[in-house]
Design a protein that fits this description.
By secondary structure, this protein is of the alpha+beta class. Helix content is 44%, strand content 19%. The strands form two sheets. It has a four-stranded mixed sheet. A two-stranded antiparallel ribbon has the order 3-4. Strand 5 (77-79) and strand 6 form a beta hairpin. The longest helix is centred in the C-terminal third of the chain and has 30 residues, at 138-167. It is elongated, with a radius of gyration of 24 Å. It starts with a helix and ends with a helix. 19% of the residues are buried.
Amino acid sequence: MTLDELLIALGKANPDLVLPNGFNSPHSYRGFYDELAFEPASNVTVGSIISAAWSAHGETYTGYKGGDYTMGRHTPCWLAFEGSSGGEEITPALLDNLLAAGSVPVPRGWTDEQEKTIRAAVRMVVKSPSPHPAMAGASLILTMRPLLTDLLGQVDHLTHRLAELEQNGQR
């Protein structure tokens, strides 16, 4: 894959996906100095790989035996330790396998009681009549009301979606 193809493919993946086997630390590939290589890495997010790939775009690296090589959109990409002429070319199949092995960490959520308290407080703000203008935070409440309404809807949607995934054994 070229650097451009790699960035496009990674851009379609969840940036929070953690790959047990991924890559980072771009450098000039010893096999072909004008080509780009990334160091193999464990437990890295797709987001961090995207950052590493973007950092290499337009960057000039010094080849193993000298010379300066600028990496661009059409630069082929490899998976190899710096200084190694071994490694393997990053292909769509390789990237698909790396992404398929990834998982999104389960966020540390609230307890059921905390969730109920937060939902109740937000609903109270959303449903309350307009606060008196002299009340502390009145303008903030009026400004936040539409945002909180949207937030409640999104939380409800995600809660139901999570329950569906758990029911289907996908979480």
